[in-house]
Amino acid sequence: MKTDELREKYLSFFEQKGCTRRPSDVLVPKDDPTVLFTPAGMNQFKNEFLGLGRPDFKSATTSQKCLRTGDIENVGVTPFHHTFFEMLGNFSFGDYFKTEAIHWAWEFLTDKKWLGLPPETLTATVYLDDEEAYSIWANDVGLPAKRIRRHDEYENFWPAGAPTNGPDGVCGPCSEIYYSSDGGKSEVEIWNLVFTQFNRTGSPPDNLKPLPKKNIDTGMGLERTASVLQGVVSNFEIDTLRPLCVAAGETVGKEYSFDAPDGRAIRRIADHARAITMCIHEGTAPGNKEENYVVRQLLRRAVLEGFLLGRRDPFVFSLVDSVVDVMKVPYPEVAKTVQSVKDTIKSEEARFLDTIERGLDKFNRCVDDARKSGASLLPGDEIWDLHSTYGFLVELTEALAAEHNLAVDRARFNELEGEHEETSKGGKTYGVMAAGPLHALHETHGGSEFLGYDSTASESEIIGLIAEGRLVEHVDEVGHAEPIGVVLDRSPFYAEAGGQVGDVGTLTGDGFEFRVTDTQKERDLIVHLGHLQQGELKVGAKINAEVDAGRRSGIRRAHSATHILHHALHEVIGKDATQRGSKVEADHLRFDFNHRQALTPDELSRVEDIMNELVASGADVTTNVLPIEEAKKLGAMALFGEKYPDFVRVVSMGDFSLEFCGGTHLTNTGQVGFCKIVSEDAVGTGIRRISAVTGQAALNRMREAEQLLKEAQAALKAPRPEDLPQRINVLQEELKTLRKQLAQQSQQNVAGEIDELLAKAEEVDGVKLIAHQPTTGDRDILKKYADLLRNQKEPVALILGMEVDGKAALLAAVSKELVKRGVKAGDCVKAAAKEVSGGGGGRPDLAEAGGKDPSKLPQALEAGLAYYKSALSSGS
What we know:
Layout: H1 3-16, E1 20-21, H2 46-49, E2 59-67, E3 84-93, H3 98-110, E4 122-127, H4 131-141, E5 148-151, E6 157-158, H5 162-165, E7 169-179, E8 188-200, E9 208-221, H6 222-230, H7 242-251, H8 263-281, H9 290-308, H10 320-327, H11 338-373, E10 377-378, H12 380-390, H13 394-402, E11 407-408, H14 410-418, H15 421-424, H16 438-445, E12 449-450, E13 457-467, E14 470-472, E15 474-475, E16 484-488, E17 490-491, E18 505-509, E19 512-522, E20 525-534, E21 537-538, E22 542-547, H17 549-573, E23 579-585, E24 588-594, H18 601-617, E25 621-627, H19 628-633, E26 647-653, E27 657-660, E28 675-684, E29 687-694, H20 695-716, H21 724-760, E30 762-764, E31 767-772, H22 779-790, E32 796-804, E33 807-814, H23 816-819, H24 825-835, E34 838-842, E35 846-851, H25 857-875
Helix pairs in contact: 3-4, 7-8, 8-9, 8-11, 9-11, 11-12, 12-14, 17-18, 21-22, 24-25
């Protein structure tokens, strides 16, 4: 059975059992602060498990895109571990329970209409005390007792060990199903049934309280089950992954075979290529923080595997087509971003390979130092520096070190890595089912009704107040430092979403006034954040809610302009310029989009011209709420990586723009007034950003530009604006001449100081030590000092520093004979640079550094001298 067929059979089976088929959630859930990536099928149903879901939605089935990095070292090594994978699941929210979950699992696995696995190949496990599950397996299903195993809370409970160790919250026993084709000698876990039936409160005993509504959460690994059905030794040999492994082998010049020596490395490349392609498609590009950092590390691991197999140029990007080919049936949208994903990966690969080449110099120095000292281990601090500065994964360093019969100090490396562990984790540290102060409010009142599409004012009622992280009945502290949260039953305030900032305004009533400084959304509740100006707020009070209408108008202009800008970009640079994010404020907007290079001035002018032509056309702006599939058929554009409801709001402008959008808009493009592009920059690999202004902000910018032009004319004595370029050229030539004269004078002054510096220099073990801070000049002056001071008969070690353009510039240099004595300019300048909050390096005899804090230059020079004294002392 093919993998795509298995996925469809599973979803169809549970649809027939009354479960609602739901689409996969996004890989990076933006509305869930507890995880970086979606790790399991149940994550998108947290509201339903907490009793906050829709009453007509009591059971579901999905095939969920997941990403986990907890077992990354096992990827490619074991038959079943992946980073990206799909999890088949069926879920019940107070609907069916153990009997149905177990019976249906058995039916799906063994019935010839579905998977048709021989019953004798299957075994089950249950929690030690779960007599109900044991009875269902033994008495209802008829599974022999020898094929039902009991396990403790660390094996068959979710979360593992919860009864004894916590955390508090919903939990329950599990029943796992295993497949074996050899009579039990080797087993594969293919399905885990979780029965969330308890609420854990406090320590044992009697800490598991039955839930009023019991839930089902199951997970079946798609790739793992496909490997069972296809009779192959590993997930990587199934119909959707083996072609990817073959393609990965071809890119590194190796023929892929599961048992080949290079098989593991090629499987890792294939796995990571699939993971990063799916992530970048959804807008999570390689970067330095959280999920972006994980994507960068996965890409680097793939590149390094290829590097160790001899591939020294970018190659992972070429696997994107193969990934799309195996993923396009369930996720056809991945075919729409192929070029931008390839560009992003290729650019990141090239940058990293360049870093590797620079890092090899440091690695070779580490090897030379080890050989000289007779050490068999490369120091952990140096290995960590290779990792953190040059991106060398420790596996690469270990492989390269082995070629020189050396090992690495892994213990020290692991200690240093631990300091950064939270950054590289595939998840955050919050509880999976953590309940905030708004959960109870949501259960009592449901959501807030949003009125803001039609009005900027309303009569409402306070249904909740949040102060210092908890629900309160009243607030009377005027000017409280921390913002207060006010929840209304109905509100005209737009809560921040989709790149549009939250509204501001006022809430007023009988004797009180509350200033709203921001509006946020928690599930369906609109939370007005701000400060009490006078009086007292009470739950149940009637209020007048009024949005700052002028600010809202500016936001509407800017938001409609982003849609116009999106269309203009498609006209000028093509359909691949898909949106990757935006921020919309009053008459200010920024728009992020896929593009591999900067737009030319001509392209920017054309984009701006198209935008203002469409503004002047006065096209109608209309909105409709449609079923999501109908909206897609109409060609409405969606933001990849964004989660949308079953019914979506579609905004259309004339006949040129049709987009999914929940923001506030104009009714006519002419109301934008005027749009001016302010800047175009890179914000990430393959991602560009355009910033623009509309309305009054655009007019103000034009006036400011005119005023600056007049001031420049006056300052440069240019009769007309068109005379400015020529006048500037004349002044630049004059400045160049003066700088040249000043440099010559400075160098003469340097030569005159050399004898004095040598005369005053401290001497240690026959070496002149010099620390000096010139008062004028630039970096070239520092090099002049170094050249003249080292060109002496006696050995010299020097550290120089000065302020250049508001920053600290440092230079260390030693006579070449001192390098043989272990005195290194690079080590000196590093020690000095720490004092000025900077860093740097260079050759053993000459090294430079920079820093942010020039006020600490005297301390930096002292640190440099201290290094020289220590090095000379130990060397002697």
